[in-house]
User: What shape does this take?
Amino acid sequence: MTHHPTSKHFKANVAGALRDQDLRQAMGGAGGGLAAKRAVARAGMPEFDATRDAGKAIKNHTLGHLDLYLERYEAAAKASGAVIHWAETAEEAREIIAGICRDAAAEKDGKAVVNKGKSMVSEEIGLNAALEAEGHTVVETDLGEYIIQLRGETPSHIIAPAIHVTKAQVETDFREAHTHLDPERPFPDPASLVREARLVLRQKYFEADVGITGANMLIAETGQSVIVTNEGNGDLTQSLPKTHIVLASIEKVVPTLEDASTILRLLARSATGQETTVYTTFSSGPRRREDPDGPEAYHVVLLDNGRTEMLGGEFAEMLRCIRCGACMNHCPVYKTVGGHSYGWVYPGPMGSVLTPALIGVGQAGHLPNASTFCGRCQAVCPMHIPLPKLMRRWRIQEYEQRLAPAFNRRALGLWSYFARRPKLYHLGARWGMWAFKLWCGSKGALSRLPLAGGWTKHRDMPAPQGGTFQAQWAAAQKAEGASR
Amino acid sequence: MSTADSADARSRVLAKLRKAVAASGMPGATDAPETRGAAVAGRLAERAQGGPIPTFGRLEEREKVDRFTDQLGKLSATYSRLPSLQALPYALAEALRERNLPASIRMGEDPDFAALSFEALDVSVGPGRVEEPATLSRAVGAIAETGQLILLSGPRNPVTLTFLGDAHFILLRASEIEAGYEGAWARLRRMKADPRTVNLVAGPSRTADIGQQLELGAHGPVSLHVFLVDDV
Assistant: This one.
């Protein structure tokens, strides 16, 4: 699925999302469960908050020496037989991977069957569409990714890509896609759907020429790439085909296995409330000489795609992100509008900071505005990323670059004119109140108010009572002074 | 993409990155080159603790074993204790029968397994195959903190056995259980093993991708059973 960003149309996306009954059903309680599970997992490890501090320190240290750690990682990985590729842009990464796929299928017609484990970076670079355009066949193997691939959709959550899909919709999709099976077969429960996907995908693992996975971490000490999964698809994807490609962005490197332990203690707890995922896999190089299984070639594509700009600018702290999804699980906006409303690959609070950095604030300026600044995202972030502060920086950039809508800009300009002239402001507030009261008439309330139809549809707007806040405050101060 | 292009991309990225690091405001970013180099070399050589080790990652002796078996339960895995390795063939045959599985098992070339006589079972040796009903692996250790078993790929333990079996059986010696991740890394370094994959396995595979309901047996095994040789 290619990602032509629709972030510019955030408002329209949201309007559509709020009308979508299937989405409302799928998202009802979505995230809530994960948030509660995280709370339990956090309570279960008294050292959790200290571990977060340590995790932040590890990431900051690594980012402060990222050039050196990447060189050390590269050397260690090469020593175990890895082929390392560097890609500055998404396009370069796509070309490198397409080239490896062509070579892997050279004995056939150059068209490879490519299995994929879940990788958000591959979504970021629009890998599937690029490979399909060259005639390769791409099979997503993570169950959630498989479902959205069948539906021609993009992920709506970074760890639960099909969170927006109901069980009934999956049933329809499977009946349409798996036409070789009995059309009358029953699907009494989710388990029956899981079983069917398992059987269909099992065969595909053996047909693949190439397996592509992402990486949750790269370890500089050992040259290993690490993936964490619950399904085991990432392991079958990398163990059965002849070629394994790891696609990782450059900020994924950590110094040592000891540092990896700290990240692992935070990741699953923050993501799903698990103490650990079922599978944590450390891979290095191709199969060894005496091995009976495993890939014969192991490639790692190290992708920059905007990370260096972030590191040298105002958004360096975002590079600590370990993609746990806790911020979206706790976000009132995300839980209401769903991931697709954000219009690109990364949704929720982390997406609202990351997306403008990757596709430009001109495209994604709405996203950092789609926040109530309630601060829960920052409160639960295992890496202490100040997400509201970073969103505010994007709002400032958006305003300074004159990208905000003219109406918003004029309204803000008008307000700031008065805000900087207190006397005028107070006078205006008094007159405004007086005029509003007059407008309400004897009823003392308005049943319709221009620009606030959504509000007055359900209740009346009452007329202001008493003086302005400033006037009441001054009066109270005076009274207090008199009584003393 | 030619090698030249790739080398070029490498120098382009690293050149940009050095400038970005210097401007990042991150700790150590603007130190003298020798200081930065020494900081990295030191960290990789000393492998200092990355953060606090939780209390349950520091347990000893029996407590460690108890924590591990408790974790297995939480992970929907099962276990049984064996007095010695010699008890494995009988226990395995029993376990297969209990699960209504055929009396056959796929395993690697582990010398401890090779020395046993699995008379009642149809034993085959080699990597995993599609729809393998039952596979047997040998863990080189385990982590009590999480309930993870440590499996190293190679002829002794083909990695596909861990993912293609419907029912996965794993042999572990209780004396090889480490309290936390840190102990596991120390064990692996002592072993000087260099496998293609180190697999930490915590229970049977699972997914919640359909209707957010947890189901066991996604792509990997539907069940996981540990034979724990009680040598502590």
